[in-house]
């Protein structure tokens, strides 16, 4: 049988030994409390720091679902192209050999349109949109059809304003617009290995101005993910020319290619051209603009000549 241990002799009541034990016990209780208090204080400060970081990220237009930037605002890209498998969207439409997408993908370039040209193109948008503008955060100006956002509706600016248009725009404005559009068309054709003459401008092709004003109608809700070929059956190739700079002119508003677990984003930069095939392989959206104003022009192309539109003319 194992020997039994004898307990320490009990100190007489009121003895110094008992007092020392009580003091030691009190300190042992206080120490964990002090540690808990310090950890709590640290945790609160850490939580505040994380919250501040999230608020800053949101302020700058961040989106935690984005995992890769396809084109940074600070880059000057001569050309970047990523090929992706084509969807079946094109199979339900009439195909045009040598034009309808067989090679699908997305690309970005900063060397087709200069920043000075982008500023001059933006001034066209500013002049036209000064005639109206949406009550919500998204306004459009379509020089081809004449569509202009006014309040909660659209008007035909050529009919609505008549001869006043002659004092707003100039022939030089329209010539620059046509020249820029043609260079974008050539860029798209070269990237996808097709003839530029096989592409036809299609509708809607339009300027957009987006700010942080609350949406008033469904037309203002530009941030929903969508497929251009589904939304506009005539689209085969979509391009965007950005007319303002991400984080200098606005926050949020980045262009996002939506992919499971690996979204890709394009950070707008004045003069930057982004282009892609219009099917489900390029599901996309635009982040909400949190501050400032974002300008761009969407230029769409079709392979079907029946869906083609003419360049706008200054008359």
Automatic annotation (TrEMBL):
It comes from the Eukaryota. The keyword tRNA processing does not apply. Its cofactor is L-ascorbate. SMART domains: P4Hc (SM00702). Pfam families: 2OG-FeII_Oxy_3. Residues 203-305 form the Fe2OG dioxygenase domain. The keyword Iron applies. PROSITE patterns: FE2OG_OXY. Keywords: Dioxygenase, Iron, Metal-binding, Oxidoreductase. Coiled coil: none annotated. This is 2-oxoglutarate and iron dependent oxygenase domain containing 3. It comes from Mustela putorius furo (European domestic ferret).
């Amino acid at each position: 049988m194992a020997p039994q241990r004898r307990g320490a002799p009990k100190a007489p009541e009121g003895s110094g030994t008992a007092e020392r034990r009580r003091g030691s016990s009190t300190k042992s209780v206080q120490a964990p409390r002090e540690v808990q208090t310090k950890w709590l204080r640290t945790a609160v400060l850490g939580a505040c720091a994380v919250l501040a970081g999230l608020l800053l990220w949101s302020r700058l237009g961040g989106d935690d679902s984005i995992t890769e930037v396809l084109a940074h605002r600070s880059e000057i890209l001569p050309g970047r192209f990523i090929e992706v498998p084509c969807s079946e969207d094109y199979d339900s439409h009439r195909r045009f050999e040598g034009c309808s997408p067989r090679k699908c993908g997305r690309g970005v370039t900063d060397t087709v349109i200069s920043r000075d040209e982008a500023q001059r193109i933006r001034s066209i948008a500013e002049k036209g949109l000064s005639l109206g503008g949406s009550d919500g955060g998204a306004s459009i100006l379509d020089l081809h059809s004449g569509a202009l956002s006014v309040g909660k509706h659209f008007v035909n600016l050529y009919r609505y304003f008549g001869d006043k248009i002659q004092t707003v725009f100039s022939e030089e404005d329209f010539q620059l617009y046509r020249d820029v559009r043609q260079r974008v068309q050539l860029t798209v054709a070269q990237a996808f290995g097709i003839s530029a003459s096989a592409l036809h401008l299609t509708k809607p092709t339009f300027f957009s101005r987006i700010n942080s004003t609350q949406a008033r109608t469904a037309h203002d809700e530009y941030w929903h993910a969508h497929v251009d070929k589904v939304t506009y059956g005539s689209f085969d190739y979509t391009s965007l020319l950005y007319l303002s700079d991400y984080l200098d002119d606005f926050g949020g508003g980045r262009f996002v290619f939506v992919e499971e677990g690996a979204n890709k984003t394009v950070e707008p930069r004045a003069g930057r051209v982004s282009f892609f095939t219009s099917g489900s392989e390029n599901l996309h959206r635009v982040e909400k603009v949190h501050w400032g104003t974002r300008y761009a022009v969407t230029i769409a192309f079709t392979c079907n000549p029946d869906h083609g539109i003419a360049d706008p003319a200054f008359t």
